[in-house]
Amino acid sequence: MKRFASVRYDGVLAPGERQAEARTLASSGAEVTSWSAAGGRTYAGIVFGPEAPIATAPPALGRIDVPALVALRVLPDAPRALDALEAAFGGAGRLAGVIDARRDGDALVIECDAARTPFDLVIAAIDVELAHAPGRRIEPLLPLDDATLTAFAAAVLGEPDLQPTRLIETHLDPLLGATR
């Protein structure tokens, strides 16, 4: 069984640094599946097997999160809404699972732990904060793991018993049928 994790680096890694980090992670039994950078940080999505001692990876790598962080770049249509969004996600009253929120130009990068705050609640809170100036684009900086994606789909679709193995079969086939 594969396990998913993420690594957060403080700073934007150059291509050579990414290659070196990928080799270091591979020596710990992890494979890098994605890279992205935003808000002055670099994010790596990684996957590793059940035997890999990922927790013993060298601390120079950066912050390792198992399961992976949910890292989003939120771009409000109205830049003036960014202050309210930053206050809501970066202030003392933020959602319990929010680890960090930082500006990235006209966007806000939000990092959260989906085990502490469900992903659908994070999206709903973004929309509540932007209600006075609706419209936004949300870019995931790390791939969503199966559990997070399934929980989000279950909440959005109103199917609390949705299982990851049935997600595509049950809900994608009717959608594709409607487009044919």
Structural class: alpha+beta
**Strand arrangement across the biggest beta sheet:** 2-3-1-4
The structural domain count equals 3
Beta-strand content bin: 25-35%
The CATH first-level class of the largest domain comes to Alpha Beta
Shape: globular
CATH architecture of the largest domain: 2-Layer Sandwich
Q: Helical content, roughly? A: 25-40%
Mean pLDDT: 85
Number of helices, counting only DSSP H or I runs of 4 residues or more: 5
Report on this structure.
By secondary structure, this protein is α+β, with helices and mostly antiparallel strands. The protein has 3 domains: 3-65, Alpha-Beta Plaits (2-Layer Sandwich); 70-143, Alpha-Beta Plaits (2-Layer Sandwich); 145-180, no CATH class. The protein has 5 helices and 8 strands. It has helices at 15-27, 82-90, 119-129, 146-157, 167-179; strands at 3-10, 30-38, 41-48, 63-65, 70-76, 98-104, 107-112, 136-140. The strands form 2 sheets. It has a 4-stranded antiparallel beta sheet, covered by helices on one side. It has a 4-stranded antiparallel beta sheet with strand order 6-7-5-8, covered by helices on one side. β2 (30-38) and β3 form a beta hairpin. The longest helix has 13 residues, at 15-27. The chain is globular, with a radius of gyration of 18 Å. The model has no long low-confidence stretch (mean pLDDT 85).
Question: What's this model, at a glance?
Answer:
With 180 residues, the chain is an alpha+beta fold. Helices cover 32% and strands 29% of the residues.
